[in-house]
Amino acid sequence: MSGDGTVAKALDVLDLVAGFGHPVRFSDLLDHSPYPKATLYRLLQTLVTQRMLSFDPDRSTYTLGLRLVRLAHAAWEQSALAPIARPHLDVLSAEVGETVHLAQMDHAQVLYVDKRNARDPIPMYSQAGKVGPAYCTGVGKAMLAYLPDADLPGILSQQSWHPFTPKTVTSAPAMMLELATIRARGFAFDDEEHEPGIICVAVPILSTGGAVLGALSVTSTTARTTLGKLAELAPRITQIARTIGQETTNWRFPEETALPNRKRA
Amino acid sequence: MSGDGTVAKALDVLDLVAGFGHPVRFSDLLDHSPYPKATLYRLLQTLVTQRMLSFDPDRSTYTLGLRLVRLAHAAWEQSALAPIARPHLDVLSAEVGETVHLAQMDHAQVLYVDKRNARDPIPMYSQAGKVGPAYCTGVGKAMLAYLPDADLPGILSQQSWHPFTPKTVTSAPAMMLELATIRARGFAFDDEEHEPGIICVAVPILSTGGAVLGALSVTSTTARTTLGKLAELAPRITQIARTIGQETTNWRFPEETALPNRKRA
DNA sequence: AAAACAAGTTTCATATATTGGAACCTGCAA
DNA sequence: TTGCAGGTTCCAATATATGAAACTTGTTTT
Q1: To which CATH superfamily is domain B79-250 assigned?
Q2: Which of A24, A134, A196, A220 is the most buried (most CB within 10 A)?
């Protein structure tokens, strides 16, 4: 991946550090990176001076830097979907009392953008940002079902089709059938396809033009409920998703109010 | 700034987009960027293919991309301080019922890493990630006071010394005196130095080795309380800060558990 | 309708930054 | 002392980025 561009390589390294999940030493990174020692070394240096990474000289380890946190803040706030959906998630969460997820497609995967937990209702940022597979999650399938036909083959070909459970759909053709069912029904289930005992209903969030913006889901366990009971929530979730979709579509940013000193002014 | 390195330029552009706070068109960016048209164009393309930015073809605008959200999630989780401090913030917030801030130094500025609000106790991520000045905030001064002497001149020289209010300290020498007072006292005040009517007590979070890890503050208004009353909270805040500092210092990452397939294994 | 204009995209010779093998430093252990 | 692993620096070959200018495309103005 990423044959061209120093930027791509630097970002690769950033991902690599992020992937470890804890401070890493140079040689740990070297073992897992395709780049030669000198190149990796310089990339790391660049990232540190740019404060995308921070280097702890005492333990000689690299960690993700604070500049990233700042950028992330902006990313979350500027995303059209997440801030608009937030109050609606609160409402839905209060109504159903179960785990609520807001997700978007990111590079053929599902990115959880926000979450309300059933038990502990504190929606810290740290719970958002996780990625999951598209082909075996409720939100993933809900979004796949409403994607333009032209985009589907490309995205399906990028799925790993790992059989997490006996119920996981593990091929593109089988998924096409499932997606047709979802379109006919208007919402998707996750019937223990990712984790045993975990089930959910999910609906897509569409713009008024019909484009997929994201998906909304309510998750529970087979111990507490059934797919049938979850299905009863579908109309309400769909309603909320439609509201979010409309608000997001109508959302227009103020034309010339942000930065005052434009050169052309 | 950033004379060398394509990576630096790309990150500049990323910051630029983030700074607008809303989707931006190419020419808006061009007006605010030092780079010539073609260069900026290619940098943007690179960032879009890397999913650090996303491009909306309908409105031809650029926004921050989802890859950023993912990286940021990791950055927050992997930061030694924030996750450890979180439960302590909850405790402190419950005890005092006022706004609580957790901050770290980032490039001579204060980065708010976490927050508990007095009225509306939902600590959404969107409230973290903001940056503020070091010389006129409680957390900023608390950290400055305990920084190594060698680092201080460099950092103080980067402050803007803007007189936000009549009480703002606006020079490095004056700040040196203030910092000596803070060290003697063990905690810092913000006596309406940044915003009128806003006051706070702040204490540094130190590692057991004495290094500044961050700062913790309780903020209120002159309408609700006085500096004297806030000072009464200082011992408790200090106690919590010490606990956080110790836990963070003792925090050791598991040596070889994260990525299973190390080459050398 | 033609002409002028603005916004965005591509080209291409040139200058520059990146590359990575190898040499070179550490400190530390045998 | 020797050996060795983790880091760091060199430097010539090479790939990459650069940016002025030319070119589209779509939108105003005359």
Answers
A1: GAF domain (3.30.450.40)
A2: A134
